[in-house]
Amino acid sequence: MASSAHKQQQQQQLPNMYGATAAPPPTPSALSTNSQSTTAATADALSRLLHRLPPNLSLPTRHFPASSTTTTSPPPPLISLSDPNPNDRLLSSASQLGFFQLSDHDISSQLAQSAELESLSLFELEKDKKESYFPKNWPLGHEAYEEDEDGDGDVNGESFCLDSLCSTESTELNLTSLREFTREMEKVGLKMVEMLASTVGFENPIGQDPTRICSLMWVSQRSHGMDGEKPVLSGGFYPYIVALQYQIRQQKYSLLTNSGRVTVSPQVDSILVTLGDIAQVWSNGKLKKVRGRPCLVPGNAKNNNSQSISMSLLVTLPIDSRVSPMIIIHQVDNNCHEENDEVEEDDQIPGSSSSVKKKKEENKLMFESFCFEDYAWRLYHERLLLKDPLDRYRI
Questions:
Q1: Rounded Cα distance, 261 and 66, in Å
Q2: What is the CA radius of gyration of the chain?
Q3: According to the model, what pLDDT value does residue 208 have?
Q4: Which tens digit of pLDDT belongs to each residue from 286-318?
Q5: What are the CA-CA distances from residue 325 to residues 203, 232, 238, 376 (Å)?
Q6: How many CB atoms lie within 10 A of CB 16?
Q7: Is the omega angle on the peptide bond into residue 139 within 30 degrees of 0, that is, cis?
């Protein structure tokens, strides 16, 4: 069991704003995604107000992108932690795709398999024990869901969102392997953040202060009764810096990128690393991202039910954080038409009678700063990933 001091620290990072038994209120989904900064500030204020209203309304319908546009992608780029100079390959994968697979890490397959067995045991608990052992404390806790996606087959399942200590309210559960697995995956995730910051060229916001990040282990299981090539959606979406999935067996993942869904199949014992929206904002748009967590694609499940489990480690931020670009992109102005502005003699092009502006470097921010809590709340409860949720913060 986790110590009381550690549990108190986690509670400070992820406060219970609604009570253990209260259902969260809806958030304003009709706000324009193209609003300017003033409108965005008003929307955030309204969101904070709605958080405090009595939770007597049901959550909005959850929408997911159609899977018909899914395309098969080559295997994710392979990056080895034993490579003395992985920067070029890392930068290429992170800036062009937003995902890659990681090899030569220190996490053993035996530990991952033991963690999976312990995770499966959680879904075998009786309903009242799931709710009492893992009370809802957004985003932590147990959640069950049932949905009919696109009207062509039912998808139902449940998930457990755990803190980095895999804390529970039970003295009976043995989650030793899952807890150790989460701790080792977190170490890899922090290493990825450090490497990305160094490679892309911004200061690592975490530094030596571990309280500036917050890790979540999201364990999801879905029953699927129809098309076996359809992604097994993983429940609530939550902002993150990087997400990691250990590849215990040969399995496909569906990733939602800006260009549509792609299906990838990492090699066994590798770790699939996806970059999230926070990484994209920190890099001021230099890094690509994957929207939400990767979804499992069940194999050959047609005409019969299959169970799929996903263990996703999210390296994310404490709830009271603000998100803003950590670097400024330098853009070159190549305007070569005549300007009315006064131009110094040195700015003239030799052999030309016209005055031309010199190439200028401009500092341009791609995103405005925003409150992590409001963004996370909206992303988790609206789950409208047909549109990029970061669009409302683009400058």
A1: 9
A2: 23
A3: 74
A4: 999 998 888 888 764 443 444 578 999 999 999
A5: 11, 33, 19, 17
A6: 14
A7: yes
Structure tokens at 41: 């500030």
Query: Which residue is it, tokens 């040969």?
Result: 250
Residue type (1 letter), 174 = N
What average pLDDT is seen over the chain? 76
Asked if 282 and 202 count as a contact pair (C-beta separation under 8 A), the reply is yes
The 3-state DSSP class for residue 347 equals: helix
> What is the average pLDDT across 333-362?
43
Q: Are 240 and 276 in contact (CB under 8 A)?
A: yes
In what helix (H) or strand (E) does residue 18 lie, and over which residues does it extend? none
Distance CA(47)–CA(370), nearest Å, equals: 13
Write the single-letter amino acid at 170: S
For residue 158, which of 217, 234, 58 has the smallest C-alpha distance?
234
Task: Determine the longest span between alpha carbons in the chain, in angstroms.
Answer: 85
At 18, the amino acid letter reads Y
Beta bridge partners of 102: 79, 271
Determine the average pLDDT of the residues in 261-290: 95
3-state secondary structure 239-280: CCCEEEEECCCCCEEEEEECCEEEEECCCCCCEEEEECHHHH
| pLDDT for the residue 66 | 42
Quote the DSSP letter at residue 291: S
15: pLDDT strictly greater than 60: no
Distance of alpha carbon 69 from alpha carbon 54, whole angstroms: 40
Q: How far is CA 352 from CA 136, 239, 345, 359, 367, in A?
A: 71, 53, 12, 16, 39
Give Cα separations from 350 to 333, 340, 345, 346, 356 (angstroms).
Answer: 19, 19, 10, 9, 11
CA 210 – CA 75 distance, rounded (Å): 33
Closest CA to 189 of 86, 81, 116, 109: 81
Whether the CB-CB separation of 124 and 160 falls below 8 Å is answered with no
